[in-house]
Amino acid sequence: MMGKIWDRRLALGAMIIITSALTSEALMQPLNKTLICFSTLTRTGNTCETTLSCFAYVTRENEQQRQYGCVDTKVNHLFMCNAGPTPTFSAQCCNEDMCNKKLNLTLPKLPKGEETPTEEMTKVIYVGYGRTVIIAICISAPVCLITLAVMLFIFLRDRRLTADDKGLLESDLEVGESKMPESIQDIIDYDQTYS
Fold first, then answer.
1. Domain range holding 53?
2. Which GO terms describe its cellular component (predicted)?
3. Beta strands of 2-140 (E only): which ranges?
4. pLDDT digits (tens, 9 = 90+) for 101-150
């Protein structure tokens, strides 16, 4: 039951991201200026520079964790700036200097009776995906090997038949005393001398 709930949430999250990404293509265009953003992800100082957007996001694993930084690629822009909030992730983007430090992000509350996904739940989801891949490999590998074996058989048979045909053609072109067996040669000689 819990796996179905998370599958629906993942599908809904993917639909939200794709829909909002398609509707906000214009927002991904680089700005004419360089933004200075607050950053918790840089090693030197607490700022970073970008021409796209500043972002802030909050995640919930065991406790809420906030991160701030610069959107540096269009792919990251699609993910960070267009993702709808989920019970475990929420992000926002802005286009002014140090604006991401002012963003107040909150995670939606979980419905009663539900808990945040734990590491064990994540493993179960991953193992389920892994089983699907293993089954696909178990089915496709023998099919590929059988197909390869049939192709190899056809190739070798065709090659052998072509070589045999070449030999027959050469013997047909060079019919003469040297190519005929002795018994047939004897018959021809016998026939010519007595006729």
1. 29-109
2. membrane
3. 35-38, 47-50, 53-60, 64-71, 89-94
4. 888 887 777 666 665 555 555 544 444 455 667 778 888 889 999 999 99
Residue 36 phi, psi (nearest 5): -110, 125
Rounded distance between C-alpha atoms, residue 43 and residue 41, angstroms = 7
Within a domain: 93: yes
Which has more confidence, 128 or 14? 14
Maximum Cα interatomic distance, the chain, rounded to a whole number of Å: 120
pLDDT over 70 (residue 155): yes
Q: Is residue 185 part of a domain?
A: no
- Contact in structure between 72 and 12 (CB atoms under 8 Å): no
Using CA atoms, how far apart are residues 195 and 190, in angstroms rounded to an integer?
9
**Stretch 52-59: mean pLDDT:** 87
What's the CA gap between 116 and 166, in Å, rounded?
74
Q: Which two tokens stand for residue 174?
A: 């060079």
Of 15, 3, 2, the residue nearest 84 (C-alpha): 15
Task: Say how many C-beta atoms besides its own lie within 10 A of residue 139's C-beta.
Answer: 10
Asked if residue 95 and residue 128 are part of one domain, the reply reads no
